[in-house]
Design brief:
It comes from Streptomyces gobitricini. GO terms for molecular function: hydrolase activity. This is Alpha/beta hydrolase. The protein is built from twelve helices and eight strands. By secondary structure, it is of the alpha/beta class. α2 crosses α3.
Amino acid sequence: MSEWQLSETFHSTSGDVRWGSLGHPGQNPVVLLHGTPFSSYVWRAVARALARHHQVFVWDMPGYGASEKSADQDVSLAAQGRVFTELLAHWGLEEPLVVAHDFGGAVSLRAHLLHGARYRALALVDPVALAPWGTPFFRLVGEHSEVLEQLPPALHHALVREYISSASSPGLHPVVLDRLIQPWLGDLGQAAFYRQIAQADQFHTDEVQDRYGEIGFPTLVCWGQDDTWLPIEKGRELAARIPGARLEPIAGAGHLVQEDAPAELTAALMAFLPYPH
């Protein structure tokens, strides 16, 4: 389960981005976006399933996973939206299918509404898209990030473990949990963890949420019914704001749907995403 390597590098305006692709070139392209505090690793099962009929592109956002982490790095939602637009141009994808989770949802929406990125279809999975967002813990860390960044490594490790664990409803496999924690350890990782939370500003979704009615491509909204980070009521509101969008509740799943119910999520995506038969 721990084998997941991104072999390619793209030099973005916010640092080096690690990315990879699965499936045969020339198949319908689909791009997967992860959220915070995660990485493309959470998409591994879904990506491998979708790769049977698509060329699947995966990437770690700057400041996350295997991508560059550096002091004074801009890892805000504004920066990630620009980087995603740069990546689409680098890949030569003019109108891909897009599947986006959590902060990745906000990134995909900003790239489309503010930077002109075009999608053939969009599936949003428990996305950060509507105010208010951020758990009490998330807001607390954001307000005291400079202090928490100085925690002893063992205390930081325990904090990150507890936080990531709370994204799952049934609980994460220990190997998976360790893999999700690993990028946030060490001097670079610890600083990066608090940096990305400190730069998370609701303004970046406030800026676009009144424009969701402009979305003109097929849109699916998937939501874990047991999500304690972003309640499913947000999913219903979001689906109502996007013309023709449909809400797909995922039973038994928390916020990290890809880990809690990968088969159910994959089935919903395969029924929604077009591919040649």
